[in-house]
Every structure is written in C-alpha cells, then in structure tokens.
Amino acid sequence: MAEILVNKLTPKDFKSDQEIRWCPGCGDHAVLNAVQRAVAELGIPKEKFAFISGIGCSSRFPYYMDTYGFHSIHGRASAIATGVKTANPDLSVWQITGDGDALAIGGNHFIHAVRRNIDINILLFNNEIYGLTKGQYSPTSSKGLVTKTSPFGTVEEPFSVGDLVIGARGKFFARTVDANLALSTQVYIEAAKHKGTSVVEVLQNCVIFNDAIHDVVVGKEVRDDRTIILKHGQPMIFGKNNDKGLVLDGLKLKVIKIGENGVTEKDLLVHDAVEANPGIHYMLANMDYPEYPVALGVIRSVPGITYDAAVHEQIESVKSQSKIKCMDDLLMSGSTWVVE
Amino acid sequence: MAEILVNKLTPKDFKSDQEIRWCPGCGDHAVLNAVQRAVAELGIPKEKFAFISGIGCSSRFPYYMDTYGFHSIHGRASAIATGVKTANPDLSVWQITGDGDALAIGGNHFIHAVRRNIDINILLFNNEIYGLTKGQYSPTSSKGLVTKTSPFGTVEEPFSVGDLVIGARGKFFARTVDANLALSTQVYIEAAKHKGTSVVEVLQNCVIFNDAIHDVVVGKEVRDDRTIILKHGQPMIFGKNNDKGLVLDGLKLKVIKIGENGVTEKDLLVHDAVEANPGIHYMLANMDYPEYPVALGVIRSVPGITYDAAVHEQIESVKSQSKIKCMDDLLMSGSTWVVE
Amino acid sequence: MIKRSQVIEKEEVVIRFSGDSGDGMQLTGTLFSDTAALFGNDLSTFPDYPAEIRAPQGTVGGVSGFQVHLGHSEINTPGDFSDVLVAMNPAAIKANIKWVKDGGTIIFDKDNFTEKNIEKAGYEKDPIAEEKLDGYNIIDAPISSMVKEALKDFGLDPKSALRTKNMFALGMVYWLFDRKLDYTEKYFEKKFHNKPGIAEANKVALRAGYYYGETIEALRPVYKILPAPIAKGTYRNIAGNSAAAWGFMAAAEKANLQIFIGSYPITPATGILEELAAHKDLGVISVQAEDEIAGICTALGASFAGKLAITTTSGPGLALKSEAIGLAVMTELPIVIVDVQRGGPSTGLPTKTEQADLFQALFGRNGECPVVVIAASTPSDCFKFAYEAAKIAVEHMTPVILLSDSYLANGTEPWRIPEMKDLPAINPPIAESGSVPFHPYKRDCEKLSRYWAIPGTKGLEHRIGGLEKTTKGTVSYVPENHEHMVNIRDEKVKRVANFIPDIDVYGKQEGDLLVVGWGGSYGYLITAVRELQAEGRSVSLVNFNYINPLPRNVKDVFSRFKNILVCELNLGQFAGYLRMEHQEFAYEQLNKVQGLPFTIRDIKEKCIKILEDK
Amino acid sequence: MIKRSQVIEKEEVVIRFSGDSGDGMQLTGTLFSDTAALFGNDLSTFPDYPAEIRAPQGTVGGVSGFQVHLGHSEINTPGDFSDVLVAMNPAAIKANIKWVKDGGTIIFDKDNFTEKNIEKAGYEKDPIAEEKLDGYNIIDAPISSMVKEALKDFGLDPKSALRTKNMFALGMVYWLFDRKLDYTEKYFEKKFHNKPGIAEANKVALRAGYYYGETIEALRPVYKILPAPIAKGTYRNIAGNSAAAWGFMAAAEKANLQIFIGSYPITPATGILEELAAHKDLGVISVQAEDEIAGICTALGASFAGKLAITTTSGPGLALKSEAIGLAVMTELPIVIVDVQRGGPSTGLPTKTEQADLFQALFGRNGECPVVVIAASTPSDCFKFAYEAAKIAVEHMTPVILLSDSYLANGTEPWRIPEMKDLPAINPPIAESGSVPFHPYKRDCEKLSRYWAIPGTKGLEHRIGGLEKTTKGTVSYVPENHEHMVNIRDEKVKRVANFIPDIDVYGKQEGDLLVVGWGGSYGYLITAVRELQAEGRSVSLVNFNYINPLPRNVKDVFSRFKNILVCELNLGQFAGYLRMEHQEFAYEQLNKVQGLPFTIRDIKEKCIKILEDK
Ligand SMILES: Cc1ncc(C[n+]2csc(CCOP(=O)(O)OP(=O)(O)O)c2C)c(N)n1
Ligand SMILES: Cc1ncc(C[n+]2csc(CCOP(=O)(O)OP(=O)(O)O)c2C)c(N)n1
Ligand code: SF4
Ligand code: SF4
Ligand SMILES: [Mg+2]
Ligand SMILES: [Mg+2]
User: Fold this and answer.
1) Residue C155 contacts by C-beta under 8 Å, 6 or more apart in sequence?
2) Is residue A330 situated within a structural domain?
3) Could you say which DSSP state residue A161 is in?
4) For position C217, what pLDDT does the model report?
C-alpha cells in the first residue's frame, strides 16, 4: 500500500482546522490524540488517508483529521469504507464508529466487512451507550443498565465485540482503552499494518451518559490486576507485581499466581496472535472481570487474502485473457448483422 | 407456553390448501414434511402457531402451513418474528428463512434476535445460493463458486452459520439435512422445545442453481463417514462402522479410529450440549470435511432467560408497584392546576 | 408581597433564558413556565439547544436557550422577539441579541464577562458597546459573586455553589414579573429530598436573586401579566412528544388493545419512545430495536399479533422504513408511524425544525402505496392526533403516518386534561372465531377495511404477505385482480375522508385572502392572521391536520376566497400537493427553510403584500 | 428453398411461443428473433415467465411465454395480439387464447394433450372445443412422437429426445415464415461443441419440424415479411438490462473513469449487475453487496474515491436506498441509481411491469432532496439513457435516478451499434491539486456543480458529510446558510434543464390531442398514435425521458394542443407531477395497473373517445 514518505509527518500535521466539539472529559479526545500519533508513524502521505464514519459522537472524528474524510449516515460506515477501499486499494482507509453505529443499525455491514476481510481499520468506540442521542442503551450495554429508554433496566443480553468479530470470521481483533495513549498508539499502528479487516474495540468513557462504566476494569487503581496486555510471542503475565498469569485448564483458561503451587513463568500460555484456529482467541477475547483479567492489545492477527486485493487481481487476470479491450470491441462482439 | 391439546394433531392437519410451487426435487419439500411432522408432535393447537418468513424460495413456506402465517419482505423475518413473539409469548413462533434472507440482507436482525434470545425457532435453509432470483452467490457460497454474479468465481470468504450464531451469543444451534426426515423431525422438535432463540441450519439442496452442493458431505454413499450426529450425553462416535470418534488434542479436536493405538470408546468426548461456555460448541460447529466430519444434530442448547419473558416480567413487576393503573390516573399525575 | 414602585400591566411578554449548555437554562425556563401556568397565564415555550451534547463552553455554538411566551390572552407561539433576555455569558448575547425587541431588558451576569469569555463569544472588549445597546434596559448583575456570597456558609465547593447561578437569575425574573417562589421551592424539596443541603442552597440562591431585584433600582418597572381567561378545567403543561405518547396510550386503553412500540432512537423523536418505555405501568410493550427497519418490523409483527402498533422516528428513519410501510399497506395491518420532522435532507440539521418530509410521507414508497397522513399543530394536540391516528389505523386497517416536528416535540403549552370517558370510542374490526374459512381480504363494505384475525384465535388461521393476493388470500398474478386490489387500497384510504371532520376556517368564511398552513406552523399563522384581522384585513386561516385524504369541504372553502397563500417550512410541498389534488385554484406560497419556525412578521408582510398588490 | 403453394406478404406479424417452464420457450423465441433480425426485419420481443423458478408442471401458473413481433416497417412493441400461437401443452392455450387474433393460427403438440394435462390446465376434455376455436387455423401436430421417431437412431433416452420438441416446433414456424435454418444450426454447433451428438439431434429435430410443415397441408398459407427499410449500419439484438450495462461502460470509457457497481440482486434488475460483473475485461469493479443499502453505500464510497458509481435495483430496493440517496444529495457526489420498476406495492408482482415508482423516485426522501430523474423508453435506448444518466451525474455532481421497467429490461429489439467516437464527451469536474485550500462546496458558476477532489490527490484533503455545511465544508447550523444551501441544491438540479434536449413531438406540432407518456410505454403509445394519424386523426405524441427537470419547452408544446392525455401504468403519478409543475393545463388520464403493458387498442379507444366527446 501507498508510497513511502520521505519527510516524516508529525501528529500535528493531522490536526484539521475544525473546532473539536466533544464534551470536556470525553474519551474521544484521547483516541484522537493516539490516532494522530499512530498515523504519523506509518510513513504514508496525508492525502492517502480516508477516514469514514457513521453518525454518533465518535463519528465526528473525521472532521478533526486533516485527511480525506466522510462523515456519512448512521450505521453505514462499513459499507462506505468497503466502497472506498475496493475502489482504491492504494488508500489507507479507517472507519470510525460507535457501539450503536457499528453494532445496532450498522451490524450487518460490520459483519460483512469482517467476513470479506476488506483491508480497512475499524476503530469501534465502545462507551456502551448512545451518546449523541443523549443516553439510550446500546447493544453493548450491560444487562440491567438504567437509561432513558430502559427506565427499569435493560433486559437484553449484550454483544461482545470480540465474539462477534470472530463469529463473523474476523482475522484481526484488538482491544485498548481510550486514555492509554501508549498502548492505543501501538495497537492502532498494528491495526494499520495488518492486511485485512482490523477491528479495534476502544473502551471509551462517556462522561455524560455512562460515566466510569469501564472503571471497574480499567480504573487507575485496579487496571494492572484486572487487565492483561497481550503481546504476540510473550507469556500471558499480568498483575501489579507481574505475578499472575494464564494457563490452560482442560477446555478453559485459568488465572494462576506465579510461585503458588509451584507454577513458574514457564508454565504460562504464550500468546500466539497469528494462529488461524480461533479457539484460543475466542476465549481470550471473552475473558471478563471478575473471573479473568480483560485482555488488551492485539488478541488476534491472522494473515489472509484481502477482499480488495482479490477483486483487483481477478480484474487484472480477466483483462489479460480477454479479447475485448475497449467498448468498441464489446459493441461488435457476438451476433451482429449489417444492414446496407 | 400454550395450552396442551387433547386430540393429537397429525401432519396432515398442518397442510394448507395452497399449491406447492417449489421445483420438483427441491429440498424444501422435505423440510416442509419434517416440519409438519414435528409440529404435530408438540401438542400445541394449530391456532397458536405463527410462521414468519422473508423472501426467497424457502420463504414461501408459510403458505403451505395451515397455521397463522406472514410472508413478509426480504431479510426482515427475524424482526417481525421478534415483534410477534414479544407481543404474544403464548404463540409458537417459527421463522423460515434462506441463507440470503437471514445472512445477507437480514444479517442484522438475525444476530440481534440471537443476542436477545427471543424464544423463536429459526429454520435457516442453507442452499448456498439465491434461489428465487435465479442463482447468484450468497454469503454462505464457497469461495470460488461460479454464479451469475460471479462469472469468474466469488472472491469472498463465506459465513459459517454456527460461528455467527455463537459469536452473536447464541444459545441454541443445530444442523440437519433436508432429506433426513427422521433427524430433521427430531431436531425441529428440540428447537421448538428449547426456550430461547433456536437456530437450525438445514443443509438444503437447490436442484436448479446449486445442485448437489452438499453431496460431498451428505451424499448417500459418504454421509456416514463424513458427518457425525451429536447427541447430548453420548460419546462422539461416527462412521459407517461406528468406528470413528472425536477426542481433544490440546486446544483442538481430533478424529481417531477406535481400536487403533489402543483408543477405546471410553476415550471419546461426550457431547455436552448444555455447557454455557461456547468453546467446544464453537469447535464442533466449525468442523468441516475433509479434516473432520460435519456435525449434525443439536450442537448447543443452553438454557437462559428469554427476551419475551423478561419483557413481560418487567411489565408485570412495574404494574404491580405503580400507583398509576389507568389513563385517567396518568393524566392527573404530576403537576397540574385547576382553572375555575 | 413586597411593595413595588411601579407596575406595568401587559397583555403578553416573551422571555428568553440563555446561557452555556451547562448553565441549566432548560430547567430555569421550565420552572418559570410552570409557575406562570399555575398562575393562570396562557403560554407557549420553546427550548433551543445545540446539537452537540456539550458544545465548546463559552462559544456561540454552545449557547442553550429556552423561550417562554406568556399572556393574559391566548398564546399560540413562543414569540418572535423577546422582551427580556437573560444572558448568562457574552456568547448568549451574541447569539440572541437580534431576537430581542428594541429597548428590551437584558439581564446578564457581569462576573462572567471576562476577557476570555468576551473573546470566545467573538467580541473585542465590550459586548454592550459593540452591539450598541444604549437604548436597552441593561441590568448587569454580579450574579456569580453574589451567589458565592449567599452560599458561603453552606460549605459547598465553588463549582457546586456556582451551579445555582441560574436560580439567582430566575429569582430576579420572578421579581420582575411579580411571581411567587413557592412552586419552585417545592420543586427543590422534591428533587433533592435526599440532599436537603442542595435543596436549601437553591432556595437561598433563588431568594437572593429575588431580593436583589427588589433592591436595585434598575429592575423597575415591574411587569404584571394577568391570568388568561381560559376554559375551566384541570390543566398541565405538556410537550409534543409526551402528548403523542399519552395519546397513544389513551387510544390503546379505549380500543382495549395493548400498546407495542418498536423504535430506534433518533432526535427529535426519541422522547416518544422514552415516554412510552416509562409506562410499563400501563402495560406498554416497548422494544428498542436495532435500527429503524427493525423498529417498524417488530411493530408490524405485533400488529399481526393483535397489538396497537406504533413506531416513531424522524426523517432519515422514515426513509429507512419505506419498504416496510409498503408491506403494511399490502397486508393492511394497522400501524402508526410517527415522523417528528427535523431539518433535512440527509442528517441535515438534526435539532432544528422543518416541514420537509411531507412528500416522503405521501409518496415515498414503491408502487401505488397509499397511506393516511395526518399532522399535529400544537404540542398539546399531539395527544389528539396521536389518538386519532391510532383510531384511524385500527378502524380502517391501514398504516397512518403522523407528522410532528422538532418545534412541537420540544415545545410546551398548557393543556386542559381530558377525561377518558369523553374521548371517542375506538372499535377495531376484530374477526371472530367462526366456522366459515377466514378470507383475509374480505372487507367491511363501508370502510373497505379488512378484518383483523388475531393469531391464537381458533379457526382463523390464514396467511398474509407482500405479494399481491386475492380476497381469499391466495397469491395471484392475475392482471385484473391486481388492478382491483390497487384500486381497493386506494379507495379505502380515500374513504377515510368520510370519517374525519370538515376543515374549519378561522375568521370570516369568505374574503380576500385565505392563509393555508398545515401541522406545526399553526401557532404562527393563527397569531399573524388574528393580528391582521384586528387590523381590519380580510384574511382567514385554514390549517390542515388531515392531509391524506384531505377533508371533503376543501374545494368549497377555497372557492370562497380571492387569494390563497400556502405557508410552510419547506420549498412548497403542500402547495404542490394541493395543485395535484385541487388544480382548480391558484396558490401563492410563503416558504422558509432555515431550521426555524416562521416569524409573525414574515407572515404578515407576505399577506399584506398580496392584499395590496391585488 | 422449397416451392410453396401460396405465399402471403404481410407488413408485420406477432408470434407467441408458449409452453411449460421447462419446455425451452425462451430459447426458441430468442432463436426465432435472431433469425428474423438477421434477415432484416424490425422486431420487438417480450419474454413472460412465472415468478416461480419451476412452477407446477402443466398448470396455467407454470406457462412460460415469449412473444416476437416482426415487421417490414418500424416495430415498437411486442404486439397486443398474436397471429400465431405455438402451444406446447393445454395450459399454454388456456393462458394465451385471449391474446390470439380471431382466426389466428394455433400450433400445438397433440401428443401432449393427455387427459391429465387437459385437466391440469382446467379444461374438461377438449380445449379446442371448449374454447370454441372453429374459426381458427388449428394445427395439431404430433410433435412428441415425431421427435422421438426422428431421433430414434441417436441412442438418446426418451427424456433427452423430448427436450428437442421445441426445436421441432421452431422448425415448423421457420417453414411458416419462410426462414433459413442456418443461423440456428450454427447456434447448436457452438453451444454443444463438446456434445456433437446433442447438436446433431437438435438440428435433426429442427429440420424434421421444417419438413413436417412442408408436408402437411394445414400449414398453408405461408407468410412472407420482407425486410424492414432500416438505417444502414451494424445491428445487434439487445435487451434493456444489457443495454443499460453497456451504456454505463461506454460512459465510463468516455469519461475516463473506472466503473464501480454496488448492488444487491433483485428481479428484474439483476441482469444489469450480472452483465457488468461479466465485464471485468473492461475493468468493471462489481460488488455484490449484503443488501441494497450496502449496494448504494459501497457505490457512494467509490464515488467519493473517484469512480463512476452505479447501483441498480427495483422498487423495494429503491425504498431501502432512500436514506443514502439523501446523503448523496447532501455530499453532492455523482451516482446513478437504476430502478427497474416492477409491479408493486411491497413485493407486489415481482416479474411483472409497472410505472408506479415515479413518485418514489421524485419525492421519496426526507427533507428537500432533489435528484435528477430520467427514464428509458425502449430496450435499446436503455443504452442511451444509462450513458446520459452517467454523464449528467458526473458533470453536474448529482445523483441521477434512471427508471427502467420489467418490460424494457427483458424485452429486446434490434439496435444499430454506435461507435464510441460518436458519443458525446463526458467531462467530470475533477479538482486539481493546488496551493489554495480546497473548499468542497465551491461551485462551477454555470452548472452550480461542486468540484470532485479525489482521495489520493495531494493538497485537496477535505471532509464531507450528511450534516449541513458551509461552502468551506464546515458544519453549520446558521439558518441563512441552510436556506442558501437548500436553494442551491434545488437550483443545481433545475439547471440541468439547460443541458438536455427539448422534448420532441411525434406528429403535427399542434392539434386536437396530445398523447403524453413517459419511459417504457413509448412503444405502445407511438404505435397507437401512428395508427390514429394514419386514420386521419389530429393526434400527436410526446414521450418524456427527462422527468426532473422537465425539458424547457414543455409549456410551449402543451399549449399548442386542445387536449392532453397522460397515459401511464399507474394511477396517475406523472399526471399529478405535471399538475404540480404545469398547473395551467388540463390533463386527461389513461391508467392501467395490471402488471402488463398497454394494448394499442386501449390507447386508441381512449383517444377516439376524447376526440369525439369534444
Ligand atoms: C438513520 C438514523 N437513525 C438514528 C439516528 C440517531 N442516532 C444518531 S447517533 C445514534 C447512536 C449513537 O451511538 P454510538 O454509535 O454508540 O455513538 P456515540 O454517540 O456513543 O459515540 C443514533 C441512534 C440517526 N442519526 N440516523
Ligand atoms: C428488498 C429486496 N431485495 C432483494 C430482493 C430479491 N430477492 C428475493 S429472494 C432473494 C435471495 C434469496 O436467497 P435465499 O434467501 O438464500 O433464499 P432461497 O431462494 O435460496 O431459498 C433476493 C435477493 C427482494 N425481494 N427484496
Ligand atoms: S456525550 Fe459522551 S460520548 Fe458524546 S461527546 Fe459527550 S462524553 Fe463523549
Ligand atoms: S430454485 Fe432451487 S431453492 Fe428454489 S425452489 Fe427451485 S430447487 Fe428449490
Ligand atoms: Mg456509543
Ligand atoms: Mg438460498
């Protein structure tokens, strides 16, 4: 993809002249920062980026990036991004979307983009609420959440983003936290470099309508013990004191304490993000507090043929074999007759 | 659900007066037969059934059932069925749908029905083709399939129905073959009895546009060796001579031959359909020929709260606690003033 | 009450509360209007806030406003221009000054006129000087510091103390209009019953503002608006969205049906879903669907299953529902689709008002696909027309589109509470279990409505669907059957005209000019027309609520006027529709597409121009 | 050629091949029309098959037909009534007899008139007697047994042998019309080049039929239709769907853009997608999307990325695309949306024709949301108007809806092949990399189109979207900006009128009656009008292809006729639209909603009635 740039760009180069309109304290600000850092690292010229979004607070994002941008309609960003990338595989295409935009109204386009493995990067801002419409529950809201449309608590089972991605045959899934700039930047870079549909779930805070919903896991005090940052090829170790880890116990994962019962670091599972069989990734993506730490980082990253590349390869191959090279050829092909 | 019937109904009672318009030899005929047998077994009176479909060859189904029926629009059957069941949980609601109807245009409603765990029975006729529109590829068509819209072969990765159902947090998934009346009838009965969204993938043959596509697995000659019929609580055994089985090998399933290397029937995995953790069900649903036998029967059947029940429980609980019992109460509640 | 130096009696007055999105202006305005309503004034309110949840603080884009129009006589709009502007920061002045009457009163928090805020608002140094406001009655109160002072013993952090600024301002306005504080105080007690400290702090701030008004000279003169001579009865304030929700619940009770709403949130329609979801006590089944299509499809499924089916949305959502509305037309299932219109096209101006979805409501479907279209005119008559929409849907077995708009949805007005026994009966044509086979498209011969056979009823098993059918319900490609069914569906909707009232003329039954409007512009049109009538002009008004079919006496009414002026907030959709339906008349147009309601002035000017040109 | 007893020269003739869905009637008809076209006749064809893939054998519902109308003079329709009916089974007689001219020729396979088949078709014993066909020229050939006999040495199983029945029948028809067999024989050779036995069997069956015709007496008289005096050039037969696909590819080549089609299959539009998907050789990118919304959205993304964007659908799909069309209007991106209309509403009659999506195309979106709407009139001019639609879309930066219909999509006619160099130039307003910042809504002052800045171009980075914007591309809630943009978008579409041709009048430029049609009814209207003109009536025709905006000379043309009759296959949508746009004229209507085209007879009767009533 894309030519390589000689003069390195800085995050500032990606700031547009538009006033940023998110609430003070909204997690979206941090995501914007991290994305601007990440794209500056990629060595791709600005004009080769296209940021596509739907509708929602998060979907305002493209306005703030000094790249090509398309703030479209609610739920359709995956389809539009599919069009952009299939039309021009030379672009670096990013879809910015919310839990409502991607998983409620946009659920179908989302799973189909993932299935096709189109080479776009989807950043899904999961605040477990509809922010822009002022606080109704979303398909990721926890059961029981009281919101404007669930005054007595929701009765719905939420989606888990990772499950859905893997269920739709997804090849890249990562998770990060809005405020963790370092991790986020890294994850966004890996998503960009992965060829295929990269889905990054960003645990994002909506200060107004669902404040601190992720804090039980990612709050400053607890996050080291309640999350694990997965790194390909590294043992699955976590905890404030780096003393906890994951092992396999029959068909399930289990948290152990290093040192206890004679368990050493060597007994821990080693993260293999590129394994095609999704079994273990499914389990990792699925881990939830309090039983497990929540997995962050790149959980799954399996190489594969991308849709956009396959489409263009097929065109090139048919072209090279066909006798029809232009419209006049086509017009005169097959059964014709001459009237004189 | 539903009162119990004294006079047992027969399959014939469920035949409507409409002429059946599927192609001779289409697998849909067999499905209709099996469903008519299954529903007659349930002890539910005819008027308590509602069959809801979208559009497609398969979606003509409701016309042939002498029950309440709604042949709706393409892709929307899950949403309509959700409405019917939530409106009246006392009905036995069946959704009849095709691979295009459920997974292309209807993908979103499908995954949301599954997520909510609404108590409907979804029979998904998977012929891996759009039949009614005369033969275009579908989201389940194998990569490379040549169809009218993929004259050079599709370049898309197909969905696997089971993966998608489990990825959407599905609690019931089964698979059967159109022509296998006995297995199908049994599976449909189990689907009906399961409380929650039951998805049954029917491997269905389209004689016209995708003939014999499933035969490599379910063809008469080969089916015993290339499929395994799972039964809850039974060892995972299969083969013409009942001499093959499944065992766990690390994180993966493995096919073994009983008797070889000292393996006995006792070493085989025992099918546990009600295990909540979807790991093993995911692997089972995912098995594909030639590496594995394709799993048939009820693969996953986990009890859980249904959406329709939860909705009505909440209404009853709020009702019993509220002081507002009728509109006049509501109208006079809160801030009012009198003008005299 | 305290003795006042000078009191001016006024017929009506418009007050605009305005400040940063976080300043609590919506609450302030609401409390003021409730107090006015309790006092007996007629009134109309309109909130006006930015699309962003929290737009950048201190900027014009972040200003949130709430306008109240109250009077001694009938009030139909929140008013064009305000007599009093409360501006909590410089941006509030910038945003609103052109809507303040010449010489009006401007109350502002001078502590908030910091250099930074002044600059953020786009002024250089002194907003008052830059806007040339010498002729105005300027009251620059040090609200922030006075509030801090008043609450110094409460042990509140400065931020919490400052949150009561709006109540100080409200206190000043109460003084200005000679209102009692008790309703507002009781509100605090109730709202903060777990935090008596906060309740008390708000009370203190409110009173401090009131006494401040009394103390300073600047606040003279004091206005007095006597109660309006309104009909006897019990009243409440109601906004359009709540009124619509209540109208549906009333219809459900009257029809003896359970209500089912399947909707997807969208501004400005979400309020109806929210209000209905809150009324599980009245048995409402509410499904927040995954999108608009699922919204209508779940509702249609529920309609099939025998519920009163509702789906609510705004323009882009109505577009998505088009295909399923076609299915409702074909299956002849009752359903009400509410479109709370906003500025379009596409996402457009999501928080602003417009009347530009009329064509979509009338024509936005494939094939010959007629539905009933009706529109509400005021916040409170959203109740009436929601009720009507539900009644027509179930009695005539047809989808009904109910058009509201952003202005009605959020605006409020006092509403005389009806008694359920006084509302018209609703009789759905429910089929009864019988021995003859049920033919789904057999019809009532008067209305042409089919019968509603509800799943679960023994012996009425039948199949419906989107393919063309015979009366018996068999799929049919027979050309004549199709034409017959197309005509029947058309005629069925046309016959609704036999069941709706004739259109009323406000004013003389004949004359030089008939102003024609529809839906939510009513308040502005009636006010303008009344003023013109008072000036002795030959102008009358008809405002349409029933749009498809049109009332039967339209031709008769139109033919009695020399000129017809169609006013609407779009490029002329209703005018175009009237040309189709009543080609025999000439129509002049007044159109505005700014995301805002009309102003009385615009309407009057246009009318006068027509009258004087002729 | 063999000597013939009696040869009748005819101007034109209509033949209908009809049989069970499995009888191969579509192929038979196609081969016959190709042969006729090669011979130099003008012609028009229409296939007509059941919605079911394989409807129940032997029943009326399962009959599949193919009608060919060929002539020595210009042919514009597949004809109302047929001169010759080929009926492979009793059901084919039942289904078609009312469309056979009195005294016409009926060829049928008497071996297939078994008791069972007769009963299945709904007859008691003898279709010929029951239909009272004494006056007809009845040819009851033992086709099945003769075919079996002719092929007995081929070693085919009986089923395979019987599959050539249709070729036997075709041979008879070739005899009847004095046609050569060579084209058809070559077709077999090519089609079955891997199965020479099958090729030979078909040839033998064909010839057997031909000789049978020669042998039996009944087949006299033999018709002769001389070649039509058509313009010089190279011709091919083309159906509307292929023509549309080719028109888009031609436009792409001319505009130097790559084509991108994002579509979801739906009858009868799928053919366009299929044809484009087959032309990867010309660089077509085709995405079979997951639904119609994704179809248009992928295309819109591709348009943003600089491709010639196409999406194709039928009525229910157009409904689903409504919201995204609004986005295209707001972002002013070029895209062509093809609606191949079918019978509605809802799923309706999916394989039948209708013109009832006009309102949806014009008005089916939220807000003020104008798009260009154009309609094709004949199968081959689907090429022309696809080309035009693409040209307007990219040059004016606007969505264009192209209306076709089931009748055009599947019908064929001979088409003089254009040369690419003769087609008009297409110049998309592509923005060039520059130093000044790019303002996405800066416009060309003549067309008001904005410029197309294609991602990847250095320095033109910009953001567009569905919210209202300023010229610079900043989101704006400013009332005046919104009104300005609404007006500009409206005016931009109106100005397309300056770039399209005036409407033509067929016949005298003034007179008693102007027949007005649009789109696919053209063939029937022109035929009827020509016949009326030949009868000396003062009747002319205009048939609209440009619907929004209307051509500039409409008023001028309309004002020259005493009466205007608007004919369309719906309840009067174009008539309604004309009343809105040209209120000054009175419009009579002729409407038909049967899933079928007009008949010449209907049109003539209505015209004569109007002429004689006045
Ligand atoms: C067709 C349509 N339906 C509904 C809406 C209203 N709407 C806008 S954003 C949104 C949900 C936003 O939630 P999410 O995607 O989670 O984004 P967030 O605001 O939380 O970032 C909804 C329902 C719309 N704009 N368009
Ligand atoms: C809105 C809409 N889009 C498209 C269609 C056309 N259509 C009808 S059925 C179908 C697909 C059928 O495939 P599937 O669901 O697999 O059913 P099958 O015919 O194979 O049983 C399509 C594309 C339609 N009827 N409506
Ligand atoms: S409402 Fe929530 S998600 Fe939206 S901008 Fe504010 S804090 Fe962020
Ligand atoms: S086309 Fe295929 S799926 Fe449809 S009825 Fe025929 S065989 Fe069955
Ligand atoms: Mg969200
Ligand atoms: Mg299928």
Assistant:
1) none
2) no
3) H
4) 64
**Dihedrals phi, psi of B300, to nearest 5 degrees:** -145, 135
Q: Which ligand is nearest to the CA of A98?
A: 1
Instruction: Evaluate whether A98 touches A140 at the Cβ level (below 8 Å).
Output: no
Residue C560 CA to residue C549 CA, distance in Å, equals 21
Among C584, C607, C377, residue whose Cα is nearest residue C511: C607
> In CATH terms, are D4-224 and D236-422 the same topology?
no
Would you say residue A167 lies in a domain? yes
Task: Report the amino acid identity of residue B331.
Answer: L
Q: Are D44 and D65 in contact (CB under 8 A)?
A: no
Residue nearest (by alpha carbon) to ligand 3 atom 6: A23
Q: Which residue of B has its CA nearest to D275?
A: B149
Interface of C with A (CB under 8 A): 52-57, 59, 61, 264-267, 270, 273-274, 277-278, 280, 286, 288, 290-292, 316, 346-347
Strand partners, C401: C337, C373
pLDDT value of residue D1: 39
Every domain of chain D and the residues it spans:
4-224, 236-422, 511-613
Nearest Cα neighbor of C184 from C162, C160, C168, C195 is C168
Over residues B6-51, the pLDDT tens digits come to 568 999 999 999 989 899 899 999 999 999 999 999 999 999 999 9
Instruction: Please write the tens of the pLDDT for every residue from C156-205.
Output: 888 888 999 999 999 999 998 889 999 999 999 999 999 988 999 999 99
Q: How far is B131 from chain C (nearest CA, A)?
A: 17
Size of interface B-D (CB pairs under 8 A): 67
Cα distance between residue C53 and residue C68, in whole Å = 23
Residue predicted with more confidence, D56 or A260: A260
Instruction: Report the percent of chain A where pLDDT is more than 90.
Output: 91
pLDDT at position B335 is 86
**Does residue A329 fall inside a structural domain?**
no
What is the token pair recorded at D468?
A: 């209202």
Q: Rounded CA gap, B136 and D266, in Å?
A: 10
Please report the pLDDT score of residue D220 as a whole number.
67
Q: Does domain D236-422 have CATH number 3.40.50.970?
A: yes
Closest CA to D245 of C545, B151, A51: B151
Q: What is the pLDDT of residue D443?
A: 97
ipTM: 0.96
pLDDT tens digits for C102-151? 889 999 999 999 999 999 999 999 999 999 998 898 999 999 999 999 99
Which CATH number is associated with domain D511-613? 3.40.50.920
- Residue B120 counted as domain residue: yes
| C540-551: pLDDT as tens digits | 999 999 999 999
Q: How far apart are CA D470 and CA D477, in angstroms?
A: 9
- Alpha-carbon distance of D587 to D565, in angstroms, equals 6
CB-CB under 8 Å, B332 with C234: yes
3.10.50.30, 3.40.605.10, 3.40.920.10, 3.40.50.720: CATH of C4-224? 3.40.920.10
- Residue B29 is part of a domain; what is its CATH number? 3.40.50.970
Query: What residue numbers bound the domain in which B67 lies?
Result: 11-213+305-309
Structurally, chain B folds into a number of domains equal to 1
> With the CA atoms of C237, C239, C244 and C248 taken in that order, what torsion angle do they form, in degrees rounded to the nearest 10?
-40
Residue type, B5: L
Cα(D469)–Cα(D472) distance, integer angstroms: 8
Beta-ladder partners of D415: D236
Buried b (16+ CB within 10 A) or exposed e, C457-473: bebbbbbbbbbbbebeb
How far apart, in whole angstroms, are the C-alpha atoms of residue C323 and residue C310?
16
Q: Phi and psi for C271 in degrees, rounded to 5?
A: -55, -35
Q: How far is the CA of C330 from the centre of ligand 2 (A)?
A: 18
Closest CA to A226 of A255, A253, A205: A255
Residues 6+ apart with CB under 8 A from C139: C105, C106, C107, C108, C172, C216, C218, C219
